[in-house]
Design a protein that fits this description.
By secondary structure, the protein is of the alpha+beta class. The chain has ten helices and 19 strands. The protein has one domain: TIM Barrel, CATH 3.20.20. Helix 3 packs across helix 5.
């Protein structure tokens, strides 16, 4: 299957969790060698998900090597070269952080470094195999994660307008914090019915914005869930949202594809200099005082000013154009910067201005 997909120019990504079930064939060996997170009191159970599990200790070099050896044997050697490292916080059933103890210290002292070690385990394993340009998708990050090829997404967020608005702040703050490769579940993860007209509007607006994020990625656990023993949600492909939504989503897929060379250059800047891919307006226009105040628009690189539509039913929106000269995507009219303007934003359009 992997080879067949590669012939179609599709790379298969496999989702990995850092949990080890107590019935796993590896559990006793990892327990004996001290490769699992310990508990200072009570039962050694980190997360109950289908069954009792304990997380591998990503702060322990021996544990990182052990986990990579299994991933290499069962996935990498079969041609899988990219991984979805889920649940990287890590997630606990009980958030009494003083219980858990890692190889390098108590959770209270060093717990936030866990996702760095998780990314490191796979990055160093892949690097040892001679792989270049390593990027893996992770659900969490900490200072230093970026040097281990971490593409971070914002987690299992709600399918709501409020959550959508929060993603803009999250992505911009991640970028200026030194972690430029960031993404989100377009449409949110929890909930959302593709047959619900209100959710379709949210999905369209989120999708439009996603085209101007570091990575454009549609994902979510849609409702209603199919009957039967499955963990999968309802359909979530671009053709799952009706005849009105489909051409809009296709339009923005083509817009993103048309920016392929531009995005690659942004990624190169991020790699070499740590430059954010999505940038608060003040990053590009530090001398424009208004740019330090606007919070619901941003720069995609140095060229595109993006004004996402983040309210239901909104068909007009105010945009502040920083000092300079601008054109609205798809139009020839020039706009002078240093002022706010009102522009139309019908459902099929998110305003994007191009710096001249």
């Amino acid at each position: 299957m992997v080879k067949e997909l590669q012939e179609l120019k599709v790379e298969l990504m496999v989702s990995i969790w850092p949990t080890v079930e107590d019935k796993s064939e590896n559990f006793e060996e990892m327990l004996e060698k001290g490769l699992l997170i310990r508990a200072d009191r009570g039962f050694r159970v980190g997360l109950n998900c289908n069954d009792n599990t304990v997380h591998f200790d990503a702060t322990n070099p021996e544990s990182r090597a052990f986990v990579w050896s299994k991933a290499k044997q069962h996935y990498y050697d079969l041609g899988i070269k990219v991984f979805w490292l889920d649940e990287a916080e890590p997630e606990y059933s009980v958030y009494d952080f003083d219980i858990y103890r890692y190889h390098t210290g108590s959770n209270l002292q060093i717990g936030n470094t866990y996702p760095v070690g998780y990314a490191q385990a796979f990055y160093e394993g892949m690097e040892a195999q001679g792989q270049k340009n390593i990027v893996n998708l992770l659900r969490c990050a900490w200072a230093g994660s970026q040097k281990y090829g971490a593409l971070v997404w914002s987690g299992d967020i709600a399918s709501s307008w409020g959550s959508f608005r929060n993603q803009l702040s999250a992505g911009l703050n991640m970028g200026v914090s030194g972690i430029p490769w960031w993404t989100t579940d377009i449409g949110g993860f929890h909930g959302g019915d593709p047959n619900d007209p209100e959710f379709r509007e949210l999905l369209i607006r989120w999708f439009q914005w996603g085209a101007f994020c570091p990575v454009m990625r549609l994902h979510g656990d849609r409702e209603p869930k199919p009957a039967g023993p499955t963990d999968s949600g309802a359909d979530n492909e671009v053709w799952s949202y009706g005849e009105e939504a489909y051409p809009i989503l296709v339009k923005y897929m083509h817009m993103r594809e048309g920016m392929r060379d531009y995005v690659r250059d942004l990624m190169k800047q991020a790699h070499e200099k740590g430059t954010p891919v999505i940038r608060p307006c003040f990053y590009e226009f530090p001398d424009d005082k208004k740019c330090w105040e606007v919070e619901e628009q941003y720069m995609f690189g140095s060229k595109y000013l993006v004004v996402p539509v983040m309210k239901p039913g909104q068909r007009k929106i105010e945009a502040y154009l920083p000092i300079g000269s601008w054109k609205l995507w798809g139009e020839d009219k020039d706009f002078k910067g240093g002022a706010s303007i009102e522009v139309d934003c019908p459902l099929d359009t998110m305003p994007v201005f191009i710096k001249q």
